[in-house]
Specification:
With about 500 residues, the chain is an alpha/beta fold. It has three domains: about 90 residues, Phosphorylase Kinase, domain 1; about 170 residues, Transferase(Phosphotransferase), domain 1 (Orthogonal Bundle); about 140 residues, Tetratricopeptide repeat domain (Serine Threonine Protein Phosphatase 5, Tetratricopeptide repeat), CATH 1.25.40. It is built from 20 helices and eight strands. It has a five-stranded mixed beta sheet with strand order 1-5-6-3-2, sandwiched between helices. The radius of gyration is 27 Å and the shape is elongated. About 40% of the residues are buried. Its main location: membrane.
Length: about 500
């Protein structure tokens, strides 16, 4: 059973700091969308916010090594972790070394600027943390690995040709949007920076949009793939992005790491067949491959002025985009991430059945009938604790129980809240009852919090998991809801076996 702490991560908002006032000012600015490509993403990614270090420490299980997701951590002086917030949404957390950003104001300003960007082709930046020496970035979590993993370390199937072209187009659209939004430079663009979301769609990591910090010793972690102008004078320009994009297209074309200089030699010698990935087994269009090879050649030109711009990239790649009606996850050969598992095949208890069909009336009847029998053993009160305050608290619970029985759920919430706020006695049943009251008042967020509190008081209580499953379903988090329903059913069966055996 997982620790309750991981389920009750605090995402409280601290008092407004100068950094947050800066965020509010910058969030009012509107960046123009690119003239070519998809519209900016709005209303999907969470708003940009400042997290506390304790939030992110709890979300990542104290930055456990088991939560590390970065595949290039051996060369990078920072690490990316996955984490889970109170609302059960997954995040990616990039933790820098203490000397990475010595100026907290610079870090906050840079993070806020990148946080203004919102696009469906980006793994968007949703927050940051800047406490003491700690510098962390928080982004949307992409659950289906990197392009490098699918391209170079695949186990089940390689990426088909049409999907490779889709990756190239989507990343070109991301770069075009960033350029239009005032972020023309992207640092260390490579196959590890391309991530796949829950639908299998490729997205560009927002982390590369941050300007180099002190521990970012170079524009690229691999000198063989670094733009010539950086090696020459240490400067990068928007055209440097195009060079790096050319190396990513080269990876997509060949399925392996080929130094750009070597690739250009092969292109000049017209050895296109040697450049294309043998794992494709000839299942691609030679005409399309020729277009891609020519685009690689243009992107890898020595002189920055000879390279195309982002709109040229889209204009070249968009006509090659085929199978537009086929979802990306099917083309990658991965399951759709948000598909909810089926409900348990074993018979459900009356409570399980009620939760499965989200029958709040039936759940209410069961909780009324059960009363407080599951609270036994959760509180042991001495005679000294039996004060007037205790009597007042129990009176509040009693009024709440009458209101709960009579279906006056708003009054029940008020009375149960009085009982809970005193804090002398902890009752999982009160949390479960108030959770149902919140659901019946169409407030699934506090309902979920109460169900999670009930679990913390009584970690193996099936009812706590049942109530979480209903609240999660109300929040349209159906996969998590099904997981909770399965967990509740398992605990209930275990409890029944223990009762029979005693």
């Amino acid at each position: 059973m997982g620790c309750c702490q991981s389920l009750l991560l605090s995402q409280s908002q601290p008092e407004k700091s100068p950094n947050q006032h800066l965020q509010q000012q910058q969030q009012q600015q509107q960046h123009p969308p690119p003239s070519v490509g998809p519209e900016p993403l709005t209303g999907v990614a969470p708003p940009f916010t400042e997290f506390s270090f304790s939030d992110l420490k709890a979300a990542t299980n104290n930055f456990s090594s088991e939560f590390i997701v970065s595949e290039s951590g051996e060369k990078a002086p920072n690490v990316v972790y996955k984490g889970r917030l109170q609302n059960r949404s997954w995040i990616a957390v990039k933790k820098f070394t203490k000397i990475a950003w010595p100026d907290p104001k610079q870090f906050a300003e840079e993070a806020s600027s990148v946080g203004n960007l919102r696009h469906r082709r980006l793994a968007n930046l949703i927050g940051y943390c800047c406490e003491g020496d700690e510098r962390l970035l928080v982004a949307e979590y992409m659950p289906n690995d990197t392009l490098a993993k699918h391209l170079f370390h695949w186990e089940n199937q390689t990426i088909e040709w049409a999907m490779r072209l889709r990756v190239a187009l989507y990343i070109a659209e991301a770069l075009d949007y960033c350029s239009s939004g005032g972020h023309p430079l992207y640092h260390d663009l490579n196959a590890y920076r391309v991530l796949f979301d829950e639908d299998g769609d490729p997205r560009l990591s927002c982390f590369g949009l941050m300007k180099n910090s002190r521990d970012g010793k170079s524009y690229s972690t691999n000198l063989a793939y670094t733009p010539p102008e950086y090696l020459k004078n240490g400067r990068v320009t928007p055209e440097s992005n195009i060079y790096s994009f050319g190396t990513v297209i080269l990876d997509l074309l060949s399925g392996k790491h080929i130094p750009p200089s070597h690739a250009l030699d092969m292109i000049r010698e017209k050895n296109i067949n040697l450049l294309t990935d043998s794992h494709l087994e000839g299942k691609f269009s030679t005409e399309e491959a020729t277009v891609v090879v020519n685009l690689v050649s243009k992107c890898l030109q020595y002189e920055p002025r000879d390279r195309p711009n982002t709109k040229d990239l889209i204009a070249t790649l968009a006509p090659l985009h085929s199978k537009t009606d086929v979802p990306s996850y099917l083309m990658l050969g991965i399951p759709k991430h948000d598909e909810a598992p089926s409900t348990p095949q074993r018979p459900l208890s009356p409570m399980g059945e009620a939760c499965s069909r989200m029958d709040l009336t039936a759940i209410h009847q069961i909780l009324v009938a059960t009363h407080y029998k599951d609270d036994e053993g959760t509180n042991e009160l001495s005679f000294q604790e039996w004060t007037q305050q205790m009597r007042d608290m129990l009176e509040a619970r009693k009024r709440g129980d009458f209101a709960f029985r009579d279906k006056d759920f708003k009054t029940a919430i008020d009375c149960y809240s009085q009982f809970i706020n005193v804090g002398t006695m902890v009752s999982p049943t009160v949390f479960a009852r108030r959770s149902l009251c919140y659901l019946l008042c169409d407030q699934p967020d506090p309902a979920l919090r109460d169900a999670m509190q009930a679990q913390c008081v009584f970690p193996d209580w099936p009812t706590a998991f049942y109530m979480q499953s209903v609240a999660l379903a109300k929040l349209d988090m159906h996969k998590d809801a099904a997981d909770m329903l399965n967990e509740a059913t398992t605990l209930e069966e275990k409890k029944q076996r223990g009762t029979r055996g005693s």
